[in-house]
Structures are given as structure tokens and as C-alpha cells.
Amino acid sequence: MSTRPLFGLAGVLLSVLISDTNDVVTAVALPELQGALGIGHDAGTWIESLYLSAQPLGMAISAWFIPTLTVRRWALIVIAFVGATSALLPFSPNVEAFYALRVLQGFAGGLMTPILLSVSLALLPPTQRIYGLALYALTATFVPYLAASVVAFWQDVLAWDFVFYQAVPGCAVGFLLAWYGFPPDEPQYGRFEQFDWRAVVLIAVGGGSLITMLYQGDRFDWFNSPTICVLALVSAVCLPLLVVNEWHHPLPFLKIQLLGRRNFCYGLVALFLFIVTTQAAGPVPVNFLIQVQGFRPLQAHLVTLEVAALQLLWLPLLALLLDREEVDARLVTVLGVGCIVLGCVGASNVDGMWYAAQFYPWQVLQSAGQAMVVMPLLLLATNTVKKKEEGPFASANFNFVRSIGEGVGIWLIGLIQRWRGNLHYNRIADQAGLDRWRTAQAAEVLRREPPVLTDDMVRTSGGLARFARAVQQQADIMTYSDKYLILAAIVGALAVIVALLPKRTMPPRIELSQ
Q1: DSSP code at position 94
Q2: Using H for helix, E for strand and C for coil, what is the string for 33-48?
Q3: Beta carbons within 10 angstroms of residue 507's beta carbon
């Protein structure tokens, strides 16, 4: 095999890393963006919501364009698209223009990620393809944690603009590597005669409505809002129609028939659960340190940087391990699930005395577990792809499910926060109210503070406000503990899925017929 295509693969990988960084920009820099645009919290939520809503369309259709326009043309177009949308965002004249560019940026990010998996399956020989899967696994386990730290660095050290400008040099280098590495090929423009326009509309409307509903549901009070009811109805109509359309279309974006292969279907379901849990669990320690302990984003994201750095160790080791014939990938997956569950259960002991150091050992376990789960799952599903022309379909199915899983993960963590957070706050407030005088007069209710009340007056200025914050803090701590326990239960479902698979479903190497 010529080494030149590896430069193209490196360019795509770099561009995917840059693109996925844009996915977490608003989660970290939202307060600065709100201040720069002069908008409040409600308007600010649409900055991230619109990005996520545009991703499913890009994830679904990108792989179709690879054989149509060739890898070289399509990779160069998408890399330039990602860089251009990122560079233009800081120059938005108003919030409406910012929203529009954010939609385009989300669509560009959705187009970028599937190229990596498609190129890895197509270019790498069978003996090295498992390492291509390790590169793709980086986008699910490495990028989200690293990107959060990078964005925190830019906004804390320089300015909010740089969270978007950072994409420009990375995309420029990726563009040059892809231009040099991928050889020119002959496009198949005749495929446009069978372009699936109905699927484009159904994915854009149905997938976008579903993600918007999941992200904005809490703010709109769910089905008490006509907006949420309309979004739910639209997604409930469009997504089943999408399945029917793709089943019968001669050249679909999503090949539904692949779900008839047992291992592929199990792999997609397990990958969906994995994406949901990692998307939900990733921000938990950071949010705890910022919300409860008052850390700045740059300080808090050292916890996630640890997970990102360890992925550079775990994923190559897992690729080497799974490349051996005697290794049962089912056992590796179960051990990975055990590490994640143990890490979540350990972190559920969080209390008001926890700082970054207390999270480190449990983050190490979760980091190792994520690598041990995602690599066998990718191997499981892609091993069912026996023909080279099925590679783009597998990539589209994978990434479309991944984009939906990211939205469900955000919904899940918001649901836990609302239900369990309200429960804990109400119970603590009720108990304090039932015995309010003894509670407010007791010493050390608040650490290093005198009693809130004496018999006839407020003991200290602002004492009642600090007491209210202490009640809220304890409710938050208990809610974070519940988040870890619920996520541990969901991850445990992966072990059940793996247990249903026969022993030799995941041979170490993938052989694609030409």
C-alpha cells in the first residue's frame, strides 16, 4: 500500500477533530457568546440547539457523496465548508445571522465525521483496518473531552472569538493533506439521477424536529407547549416515513436492510446507548466543579483533559489486543462496561468536599472502560460489511444514529436534573421548614459561618441567603450522585446486549470483497 493516502487520512482526521470541537463550543463559552451578542439565556440555548439539529442531515448524506464526487473532491469541499463557517461566525452582524451560520456549521460538522469512517474502511488494508476504527473511535471518546479543555483555554486566556478562529489553521492544514494524499479519481455524476430528495426533506425536518424537541423540551415545559407538541408530531410522522422511503429507494442514504444482520443491529443499538451515556456523563464532573465548587472553566476542564489524554493510550492498545485471534471481544466489552459502571458508582459518592483530585481515579476507570467498549462495538458492526460498496451505507447508518444519540444524551441529563433535582430540593427544604428554628439557630449549619438566626434577629448579614444557597448546593450534590447511578444502570444494558451475541461474532480483522 502506498503511504500517500495516509496523508489524506491524517488530513481528514485533523479536520474531524476541528469540526467536533465546534460541537462543544457553546457548552463552554455560552456566557461569553450571550454577552457578545447581547442576548439572554433563552435565546442563547438556540445557539447549540440549531447546531445539533442540523447534524443528522449531514451525518446521513455525507457518505453518499464519496463515491459520487470521489473521496478527494468531497473531502476538500467539506473541509473548506467547515473552515469557512467557523471563520465567519465572529463577524455576524446580528443574532439572526449568527443562528443561520450556526445551522450551516452544524450541517458542515455532520458532513465531516462520516468521511473518516468511510475513508478508513476503503483505504486501509484488512490487516490495518482495525487501526482505522481506532481513529474513528477518537471522535467519540477523545474529541469531546479535549475540545472542552481547548475551548476553556481560548476563552480564559484570549477571547471568545478564538473558539471559532481555531478551526481556520487546522482546516487549512487538513485541506492541504487531503489534497496531497487522495489521488484524483473519476466521479460518478450519474448517481445524481437517483438522488434521494425525499430523504433529505424527511431527515432535515424529522431529525431536526426531534433534536430540537429533546433540547428545548425542558425550557418549553414539554407537552404543555404547543411548540413541543408540533415538533413531536412532525418527528413522529417524518422518521417512520424515512424508514419506508429508504427501504424502497434504489440508491438510499441509509440502507435499512443492514439492520437485518444481527451483529450490525446489535452494534448500532449498543453504540446508541454508549453515545447517550458518554454524552450525558462527560460534562457531569465539570459542571459539578463549576456549579458547586466555583471553579473557572479552565480549572474544571483539567478533569476532562485527563480522559482525553488517556484515550491516546487506551485506543492503540485495544487495537493491538483485538487484532489477536485468541482474544474474545465480548469479554473485552464486558470488562469495559464493568470499568464504566465502577467509575460511575464510585463517583456517585460525591459530596461537598470533593474537588478535582477526588474525580481523577473514577475518571481513569471511565476512560479505560469507554475505549474497551467502543472498539469492540465498532468491530462488531463493521465486520458484517462484506462488500466494499456497503462501506458508505454502514458509515451513514452509524453516524446518523450517533447524531440522534447525542441529542438523547442531552435530553437525559436534563431530565435527571429536573426530576431528581426538584425532588431533593423540595425534601431538604421541607425538612428545614419543619424544624426551621432549631435548624437556623444551630451552629455549623454552614461551614465556617455563625448560626443564621438568634432568638429574635438575623445573626449575620445575608445569613438567610447563604442558608438558601446551602440548601440548593446540597440538592445539587445529591442530583449529581443520582446522575452517575442512573448512567451506570444504562451502561449495564450494554452487557446484556453483548451477552446475547454468539462467541465468534467479532473476528479481529475485516475482509471486504472488492
Answers
A1: S
A2: HHHHHCCCHHHHHHHH
A3: 12
C-alpha dihedral sign at 17, 22, 28, 33: positive
Size of the chain, expressed as the number of residues it contains: 514
pLDDT, residue 211, reads: 93
Cα dihedral 40, 43, 44, 49 in deg (nearest 10): 160
Point out which residues pair with 453 in neighbouring strands: 458
Alpha carbon distance 97, 104 (integer Å): 11
Mention every residue, 6+ apart, whose C-beta is less than 8 A from residue 491.
Answer: 273, 274, 277, 337, 340, 341, 344
Sequence-ordered alpha helix ranges (H) in 24-165? 25-37, 41-69, 71-88, 95-123, 129-141, 143-157, 162-165
- The pTM for the full model equals 0.84
* Structure-block grid coordinates of residue 432: 428545614
Neighbour-count burial for 119-149, b at 16+ CB within 10 Å, e otherwise: bbbbbbeeeebbebbbbbbbbbbbbbbbbbb
What angle in degrees, to the nearest 10, is found between the helix axes of 167-181 and 71-88? Answer: 170
Neighbours of 46 (CB within 10 A): 20
Which among 145, 126, 140, 109 is positioned nearest to 15, based on CA atoms? 109
d(CA 445, CA 286): 26
**447-506: pLDDT as tens digits:** 555 556 555 555 556 666 777 777 888 898 899 999 999 988 888 777 776 666 555 444
Q: Which amino acid is at 498?
A: V
Q: How far is CA 17 from CA 23, 135, 235, 270, in A?
A: 10, 10, 30, 23
Rounded Cα gap, residues 2 and 24, in angstroms: 36
Summarize pLDDT for 154-184 with one digit per residue, the tens: 766 777 777 788 888 889 999 999 999 888 8
3-state SS of 247-284 is HHCCCCCCCHHHHHCHHHHHHHHHHHHHHHHHHHHCCH
Q: Are the beta carbons of 135 and 376 closer than 8 angstroms?
A: no
Q: What integer best gives the mean pLDDT of the chain? A: 81
| 338: three-class secondary structure by DSSP | helix
- List phi, psi (to 5°) of 513: -75, 145
Consecutive H or E run containing 411: helix 391-434
- What is the phi/psi pair of residue 353, to 5°? -95, 0
Contacts of 32 (CB under 8 A, 6+ apart): 155, 160
Q: What residue type is 321 in one-letter code?
A: L
H/E stretch holding 367: helix 356-382
Cell 449568527 belongs to 98
Can you spell out the DSSP letters for 282-314?
A: TTHHHHHHHHTS---HHHHTHHHHHHHHHHHHH
- Residues whose CB is less than 8 angstroms from the CB of residue 273 and which lie 6 or more positions away in sequence, other chains included: 405, 490, 491, 493, 494, 497
* 368, three cell numbers: 479505560
- Cell, residue 159: 477571547
Residue with cell 449495564: 492
